[in-house]
Structures are given as C-alpha cells and as structure tokens.
Amino acid sequence: xxxxxxxxxxxxxxxxxxxxxxxxxxxxxxxxxxxxxxxxxxxxxxxxxxxxxxxxxxxxxxxxxxxxxxxxxxxxxxxxxxxxxxxxxxxxxxxxxxxxxxxxxxxxxxxxxxxxxxxxxxxxxxxxxxx
Length: 131
Hints:
Layout: E1 5-11, E2 14-23, H1 28-42, E3 45-56, H2 58-73, E4 78-81, H3 85-93, E5 101-103, E6 106-107, E7 121-122
Parallel strand pairs: 2-3, 3-4, 4-5
Antiparallel strand pairs: 1-2, 6-7
C-alpha cells in the first residue's frame, strides 16, 4: 500500500494541495482534514493537484465529494488539477464529471478561473466530457 503524501503551498488568496499515493478508506481522513483546514485558513481558491494519485476507490471519491461540499458551503472555489486517468475514469463512471471544475495541469500561462492574477497558472482547461 502506498502511503498518502500531502503537501500544500499557500499564497495570498489561494492554496495548492498536492496529493500523491492512494485515495481510499485508509487515507480519506487525511485528505479531508488537509483540504478543510486549507479552506478555513485560505478564504480563497483551493486547488487539489491530483497528478500523483496512483489509485482511487469509492472512499477516495467520497472524500473529494465531501471537500467539494465543504468548499461550496463556505463559498470557497475548489479546483481539481492534473487528474490522472484513474481519477478521470472514476468521475466519468459515476457521472460526477460536471460536479467538479477540473483543470488539466498547473503551468505558467495564466491563473485558473476564480484565482487572483498571482495564483498558480494552468496550461489548459479541458472539460471532462471532451477527454
């Protein structure tokens, strides 16, 4: 089993949480706690970089749904970035692709929607339905 690794980068108005490893029953509380703390501390856009996720199950998906709900209740924009095929497939299979704003990856061509100009930027925004 891969341990879940979470790192975060804070700046004015946003935070990027980088996730690596497995999102499942065992790691669900770690992700939920980390994202909820970031939402409460940041009071701005939270970007969850999922590019390092190697496995996700229903409990991992439930964690993402829970933090999305938590963010919505606090009027905090929440974006998913760099979702690997395993995550995208699960979102499509469960018809949840429209429930999340998914950006392809963090890059240097301009800030993602809802982020201030000094936020991490993205190369492209591709709707899940087009993938």
